[in-house]
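Internal ticket - ligand job 320, NAP:
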Amino acid sequence: MKAIRVREFGPPEVMRIEEVPDLKPGPRQVVVRVKAAGVNPADTYMRAGTYARKPTLPYTPGMDAAGTVEAIGDGVTRVAVGVRVYTSGTVSGAYAEQALCDESQVHMLARNLSFQQGAGVNVPYATAYRALFQRAHAVAAETVLVHGASGGVGIAGVQLARAAGLNVIGTAGSAKGRELVTQQGATHVLDHGTPDYLDKVLSFTGGRGVDVILEMLANVNLGKDLKVLAPGGRVVVIGSRGRVEIDPRDTMQRDAAILGMLLFNVTDRDSNSIHAALAAGFENGTLRPIVGKELPLAEAPQAHKAVMAPGAYGKIVLVP
Ligand SMILES: NC(=O)c1ccc[n+]([C@@H]2O[C@H](COP(=O)([O-])OP(=O)(O)OC[C@H]3O[C@@H](n4cnc5c(N)ncnc54)[C@H](OP(=O)(O)O)[C@@H]3O)[C@@H](O)[C@H]2O)c1
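stdout (structure tokens):
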């Protein structure tokens, strides 16, 4: 089978397509025939060798895939050969024609989702769900600012929040991105590329501020976020690419909380809860992954450049 291999950490071009042996499942493992693989920013940090988690070289990138079960090992009870699944992590990497997974890493793909949409489920939706409900404990009638709403996690956050009865304000850097965020149910959409745009958050909320912020770029925004939080407000730091200065008094005045999160930290119990909630949302149509760009597997380097470029529009997926 064909797989993208990384033999040294470095720029996107270190990813090359190679012919590698077919995969065989061990006990309680599953081989998935990959129909689409999701590209996440964390894949680029790992490839560059700058992430806290450094894979052992050589390796195949990617955590998120969707496809059909091709083979199962001894003791697998959760899925049968032929069923459609998406993955929440893999043993062997997702940018390939086959992916080896532990049984716990495969989940049934809702009938109304394409494989391309399935490749955009795990990291984006699980992250947004964990941020909103397991970290911020958001409840209906609260207002959430999805700060960076046009990308994978942001779109998932907007859909999840609307489905749970929250009011949503989103931000995006391009007109196309803002239109997409509006279509997903945000009441107000701001351009995070313009000066003083956050002032409008206060006017949209009658001066009160927002209850929850899902923050995709904390190194740029955290200090300003704290000034538009309502009393008892919570900021969840989902993404950050550097350092930032804050005024701690902004948290004191509001009894506010800054909550970090990393999807890798979820317990099995929380993970089961997340994927069960997502399954319900895909079944009833309130959650609909948006695929903005599809590229052939061999174009993984272009996909890594695109996911880090401005002008996000849903998910980027690779198709073997
Ligand atoms: N903590 C975790 O476990 C976890 C899990 C998943 C992702 N993440 C991180 O979360 C971030 C978002 O991930 P993703 O998959 O949604 O990436 P993505 O699809 O590439 O989207 C990036 C988002 O950030 C927005 N953005 C750009 N400049 C911004 C600014 N000044 N203020 C606010 N937002 C801005 C982009 O908007 P425009 O392109 O429209 O400007 C876009 O909406 C990444 O940094 C990723 O590494 C963390």
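Auto-summary: The chain has a mean pLDDT of 98. The CA atoms of residues 104 and 272 lie 9 Å apart.
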